[in-house]
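Before relying on records like the one below, remember that each one covers exactly one chain. Contacts with other chains, cofactors or solvent are not represented anywhere in the record.
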Amino acid sequence: MQKHGMERAACIRVMILLWGIVSVTPGLWASGSGGGSGLAFLKVGAGARAAAMGEAYTAVATDALAAYWNPAGLADGRHSNLTLMHNRWFLDVVSNFAALQLKGTSHAFAFHVYHFNIGDIPLRSIPSTLPLETVSAQYLSMGLSYARRLTPRVSAGVTVKYLFEKIYVESAPGLAVDLGLRYRLPVHGVVIAASLQHLGRMSKLVHERTRLPTTFRAGVALPLAIKEGWQVLLATDVSKPRSDGARLHAGAELSIWKQLFIRSGWVSGIENQRFSVGVGVRKTAFEFNYSYTPLKNDLGNGQRFSLSVAL
C-alpha cells in the first residue's frame, strides 16, 4: 500500500512539472516577436499511425518514427526498425519519409530522410490566364539521432539534422537539432514525454533567412487492457509551434491480438483539420498502416501510407 502511495505521489509530481513546462513554453514562442516562420513541412508529422491518432505521438513513438517525434523513444524500442512513409497531401503536395533505427541494449541510433515537394506552382509576370511556366518547391531534412536510457525509467535523445529548401532557382541550407525526454512512470505502461523540435537556423534565401518552426511538444500515453488479446492505447499531446497558437491532440488505438489496429484522432488549433482515422495490419515482422485526414475549405484530404519492418 505504501509503495502504491509513493507511486501515485511521484506520478502527480511529474504531471505538475509537465503542466508547468507547457504553461510557460507558449511565452517563449510568442507570435508577436519577429513575425512568422517558414519550412512548414517540418510541422507535417511523419507516419500513418501518428496521423491517424491525431499526432498525439510524443509519448507513443519507440520505433524509427521517434527520430521525428521524440528521439528519446528510440532507446525504448524493442528491436531495430525500418519505416517508410508516403504522404499524399492536398493539391499537388507530396512527401516521403524514411527512417532506420538501430537498437542496442540501452541505446539506439537512427537516420532519417524527409522530402517534401510542392509541384506545379504557376509563374506569371503579369495577370494572365496561362502562366509563363510551372515551378516547384523542394524541402529536405536529413538527420542522425542518438538516444540512451539514463535510468531504467528515463530516456533522453537528440537529433542533429541538415535542412535544405529550394524555391524555383533559389536555395538555402540550414542546421537544426531536436531534443527529447521520456519517462516511464511506476504505474504499468504509463509514459510521459516531451520534445523540442526544429531548433536551429537557416542560411539566407535570397536576402532573408527562413525562420524554423521551432515546436515544443509534451504528451502522455496510457495503455488499457480490455480482455485477452484486446488493448486500447490512449494518448494526448500539447504542442506549441513558433508563431502559432497552442494545439491539443488526442488519439486512440484499438489493438486486436497485436495484428489488427483501428485508430482515430482529433486535433484543435489547426484551422483546416479536426479529426483523422486509420487502420493497421501486422504480419510477422511487417506492419502496414494507413491514415485518412479530411480537410476543410475544399482542400480535399490527406492520406498517409506507412510500411514498418522489424529488423
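The mean pLDDT is 85.
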